[in-house]
Amino acid sequence: MNNQTLNIQKDLLRQPSTIALVGNPNTGKSTIFNALTGLRQKIANYPGITVERKMGTTIINGVLHKVIDLPGAYSLNHKKADERITYETLIGSFDHEEKPDMLLMVVDASNLERNLFLASQVMDLQIPMLMVLTMSDIADERGIQIQSQQLSDTWGVPVISINARTKQCDTQIKQALIEQGVATPKPFQWKPSTPLRQAVERLDKEWLSKHTQLPERARPIEALRLLAEGSLEDSFYQYSEEGKAKKLIEELQNFLEDQGENPTAAEVVQRYRFIGDSSESSVTKEVREQQTWTDRLDNVLTHRVAGPVTFILVLLIMFQSIFSWATPFMDMIDMLFIELGAFVGNQLPAGLLNSLLVDGVIAGLGGVVIFLPQIIFLFLFIYFLEGTGYMARAAFVMDGFMTKVGLHGRSVVPLMSGFACAIPGIMATRTIENWRDRLITIMVLPFMACSARLPVYAVMIAAFVPDNRVIGFLTLQGVVFFGLYLFGILMAVGSAAVMKRIFPTGKPTPFLMELPPYKWPNVSSVVIQSLERGKIFVTEAGKIIVAISIVLWFLASFPTYDPTGSDLAAVDANEQMSEQMLSTLQLNQSYAGTFGQWIEPAIEPLGFDWKIGIGLLTSFAAREVMVGTLNTIYSIEETEEQLGLIERLRSEKDPETGLPKYTLATALSLMIFFAIAMQCMSTLAIVKRETNSWKWPLVMFGYMTVLAYFSAWITYEWANAFLLG
Amino acid sequence: MIIPLTTTKIGEQVRVSCLNCTSEDTCRLQELGCVEGATGTVVSNQKNIILQVGECRLAITHPLAMNILVEPVSKKK
Known about the structure:
The complex is a heterodimer of chains A (725) and B (77). Chain A is α/β, with parallel strands linked by helices and 725 residues long. Chain A has four domains: 8-183, P-loop containing nucleotide triphosphate hydrolases (Rossmann fold), CATH 3.40.50.300; 194-260, no CATH class; 290-404, no CATH class; 544-723, no CATH class. In chain A, helix 21 (523-557) packs across helix 29 (681-691). Chain A starts with 7 loop residues before the first strand and ends with a helix. Chain B has one domain (3-74): SH3 type barrels, CATH 2.30.30.90. Chain B is built from two helices and six strands, in the order ββαβββαβ. In chain B, strands 1-6-2-3-4-5 form a six-stranded antiparallel β-sheet. In chain B, a hairpin with a 2-residue loop joins strand 4 and strand 5 (56-60). The model of chain B has no long low-confidence stretch (mean pLDDT 83). At the A-B interface, helix 3, helix 10, helix 11, helix 15 and strand 12 of A face helix 1, strand 3 and strand 5 of B. Strand 12 (512-514) of chain A pairs antiparallel with strand 5 of chain B.
């Protein structure tokens, strides 16, 4: 084999530099990133796309360095947006990322050959690197022994072996960087055949060097890609003289075929051949016949029947835990913000500023922070399961069913999280690789009946659905309640099936996924990643939510109601003017009130009056606000709360006919409206963040509102005709 | 004898002889180590297939597996 002297560079670390982590997915790359940077991370979308940029800092020998965690890739043949970012960053031509000064090439020791494929491509780019072997414990378990020194001699870069699940993995890496340094690998160590080499050189010389801006060291990789694909169609670049290129590529492909090589597979086959041959000297493998842990677990977890059953059980435990663990924290946050509002309200003189701070800013902030417990708990579960290797199996066993309804195996967990709250669910769609599948999952996720719809359902059902027994212990109220949940699921599945037909690039990606070996995840990495998700929600969606809260506060508070004049006289004449009455009058004649009256003709066919109209506007802050708003409109003292509201709703009479104003038809119509409509600004804010544009939240709001309107209308007409007629 | 991957049995050792799928899927399979000539073991075949190639365990759906043609190396143990 090569047995070369290493071109070691140790001085690179004396000054601040940029270190990039490169490697296959599931190699422990993120764990190393989390260990190196801790909470000194910054995660944001790259401009214009939805791939996340993970940047952080670390201190090595007293010098502060930047660390970039590049998206995981299996090769540099950039088929997908995230692989393209890795490729472009490495060749230094990506505008939104710094060119790395050195690389940590993360290689899974338990799956060496597959990982060395990417490594050998990256090495062709000649960037100083340290090769980091991870998962040595799994390799041990499988009887794989790797001689790091041999590997280092073969590839001409220093190699260290670490256990990414121990706490000290960052110290090990820092020490290796100081003591062993990094080395620039030589290109073409994998010894391509003469014809392939000639073809690459010709394509480079006759076309790439003349018509592209690619740096010299990146041109062979691009040439290999073009020779394998044989077309420029998937190219991310605008090349000049494409016609000439096409002719040349075709000519070179024919040349390769004449030389007995398959142009599509030549690079892959030759790289793997070299890796396989070179591994013989550096890797020893005991032949073990007995089943590993992974085999035994997979026998159950990927079983056609046991697999889905286990998955449903895991989900049940997960959501029950999230629900019961998050609720006390949410109650605490709720109380804290109420207390804070009361405190600030008492400290400041009554007036506009007081109202803005208490009802606008503090209420808005409270509305943001309240989601944190659910988000953090969900992500603790997701990252934990992801770390164990189970998530890939879950996606695999659910893929058949999910594909039938237009989704993807990986859509299951986000969709089920939607039952708790759409926001963490939408954030969790990041695990879906294909953009179209991810977008459809995001777009239908808000149909899942989230916990904020519960109060509205509860009030409406209690007020208007009779508590008759249907079968056994089932009551009509229970059936309607269950029906609303089922309705949400059916809406999501139906919409996904429709969207599957609408959205372009409908070429289905057949499920092909690596199933990583089962392992115990690194707990601190799981915690750090979950906290980062919480931080992203508060800082990015939070801004939008607080802003909309202030707008809604303004709409409900202006024009200010002046309690003098005829209204006051009228009220005074009847009863003592209470604070509650004041806020009712204020809301009624505010912009929100005017809005309610203004849209009344439009919502009348649904059986709604202007009072519900106000609720529709204010509940945009959060669905459960609907109940609070109706309380305010009906001037119900807080102590009476729900029961009071139910009584008021039931006894509300139409002033002209004297008949009950709200009927079962109204209640059904309103519940259907709430089941469908996009009445949640926090969801829209997170959709904006996750799709990186305002287009999708607006489309979502539009289609869901239209759908809600017509469904509610049909429900109202149907209920009037058949249930009450 | 060359057969589609879907017709193999659990535990069977196979050699990949032809990837008869779209160039994009071929490319993804190759990157994951499923190259023509590679040998692997069928870990599971319940419509969808799990194929162990080297140290890499690949989950492959039925439609894709139908287009992966393999040659059995030895019968089920």
